[in-house]
Design goal:
Helices cover 43% and strands 19% of the residues. By secondary structure, the protein is an alpha/beta fold. Strands 1-13-12-11-14-15 form a six-stranded mixed beta sheet, sandwiched between helices. Strands 4-3-2-7-10 form a five-stranded mixed beta sheet, sandwiched between helices. A two-stranded antiparallel ribbon has the order 5-6. Helix 9 runs antiparallel to helix 10 and helix 11 crosses helix 13. It starts with a helix and ends with a helix. Bound molecules: beta-D-glucopyranose. Beta-D-glucopyranose binds next to helix 5 and strand 12.
Length: 434
């Protein structure tokens, strides 16, 4: 069977964002941001205060860092040496789900089980030492409100997490209780921060002129340094970093696949932007479009962004690898031409995602520049999609150029790999060293 050409063209058009629309999206994003700066209830983004500005770069000492933001939890012991230097002394990492064994993110799991599991990892990171005092920075990458650097309270789970008893609670309190239950009384969480904020702190510690931090991975979100916000509880320099929670940006037009997926997701109506761009969702959109092409609408093939990446990377003449993946997941032996179309579809979904993310970065660059010149700056990004997904980074760069013209020479995106851990340690140092 060969795909219907008209239907295929129509699906590709659904995932295509032309130059004019790209400008409109960036402008709408900026407007939504400005609305939120005046009155946060008017923005579709939560624009959460982080209670940190930028680090001085002089932060030093040994800290624990907990990186809790996706299905893999990591705990680090990190020594900060100042001047952008640091060393990771210990690293412990474990997944929150092992299929068939345990699942701490499902509706059936409780906060006690989840934080108990994390406390055990922290205990391993300190080698069971229950004497030495450790300060801990906690990267907790879900929308949370806070009015100081410690007390982030989870508003709502994202990324399809559903563990009971965490929404509405202060994450660090749940952690402290779990540590106490294990007899670990010498680890004191002193800072909690979103992963975007952690990436910005980590990048700014090493590379001056970085004011925007972003995660482009399972989930998606961005933060930036807002110079006009000051608060007695805020540590650091240059104003306050705002965690936009722009995964929830909803003032753009979704296509029919976005709408359909949203309706069947854990949280319909929430995280509309994230559901269009992030790694957790690209595979879902891809599968839905393939099902339509195959006349199997509604069928779930369990395709992931990793499959998409492998399909796009197959540049061979016969597309053998791509054909095998599609056979294994979709259950059809497709002709080469149809496999080529599926590959084009995967690329279109990734390119749309990259263009949308770039538009949001440019909105922030415009916002920081105001009516002045766009200064030389870096946008720090971490995450598997940015780092590994073919076409992602190059299409961000291309879209930034399209939007900024010659000013694009002043703006680049830089990978801040593992920034979530380092940023947490820096935030702990900022809190302790004042
Ligand atoms: C969360 C953000 C987080 C992002 C990246 C989103 O689902 O709401 O807080 O920064 O994922 O991890």
């Amino acid at each position: 069977m060969a795909f219907n050409q008209e239907q295929f063209k129509d699906i590709i058009a659904e995932f295509t964002i032309g130059g004019e629309r790209l400008h409109e999206i960036a402008a709408t994003f900026r407007q939504d941001l400005q609305l939120g700066l005046r009155d946060v209830t008017q923005s579709s983004m939560r624009m959460l205060k982080s209670y940190v500005g930028l680090p001085s770069g002089k932060e030093t000492g040994e800290y624990l860092a907990l990186d809790f933001g996706g299905t893999n939890i990591r705990v680090f012991k990190i020594r900060l040496d100042g001047d952008g230097k640091f060393e990771i002394l210990k690293r412990v990492g474990r997944p929150l789900i092992v299929p068939g064994e345990y699942n701490y993110i499902s509706k059936d799991a409780t906060a006690e089980q989840m934080f108990g599991f994390i406390a055990e990892m922290i205990d391993d990171a300190i080698d069971g030492d229950h004497e030495t005092k450790f300060y801990l920075g906690h990267t907790f990458s879900f929308p949370s409100t806070q009015d100081n650097l410690y007390n982030a309270r989870l508003i709502i789970w994202t990324k399809e997490f559903a563990t009971q008893g965490v929404e509405g609670e202060v994450a660090n309190d749940l952690l402290v209780e779990a540590l106490k239950r294990r007899g670990v009384n010498n680890v004191e969480p002193v800072a909690v921060l979103n992963d975007t904020v952690a990436v910005l702190l980590s990048a700014a510690y090493k590379t001056p002129e970085t004011f925007i931090g972003s995660i482009y991975a399972t989930g998606h979100n961005t933060c930036y340094l807002e110079p006009s916000i000051h608060d007695a509880n805020c540590f650091g320099e240059g104003g306050m970093i705002l965690n936009l929670e722009c995964g929830n940006f909803s003032k753009l037009v979704p296509n029919r696949f976005d709408r359909e997926y949203d309706e069947k997701s854990e949280k319909p109506g929430e995280q509309r932007f994230e559901k269009m761009v992030s790694g957790r969702y690209m595979g879902e959109l891809f599968g839905m479009a393939i099902a339509e092409l195959l006349g199997e609408k509604g069928k779930n093939y369990d395709l992931t962004s990793v499959d998409m990446s492998a399909i796009i990377l197959d540049e061979s003449e016969n597309l053998g690898k791509a054909t095998d993946i599609i056979m294994a997941k979709v259950g059809h032996e497709l002709e080469r031409d149809d496999v080529a179309k599926i590959r084009e579809l995967a690329s279109a979904i990734v390119i749309r995602s990259a263009r949308l993310v770039a538009a949001s970065f440019v909105a922030l660059v415009w916002q920081r520049a105001g009516s002045g010149k766009i200064q030389k700056q870096h946008v720090a990004v971490d995450g598997s999609v940015y780092e590994k997904m073919p076409l992602a980074k190059e299409n961000i760069t291309k879209a930034i150029s399209e939007l900024l013209g010659e000013d694009a020479a002043n703006v680049d995106t830089i990978l801040d790999n593992g920034g979530s851990g380092l940023g947490a340690a820096i935030a702990a140092a900022m809190a302790v060293q004042k």
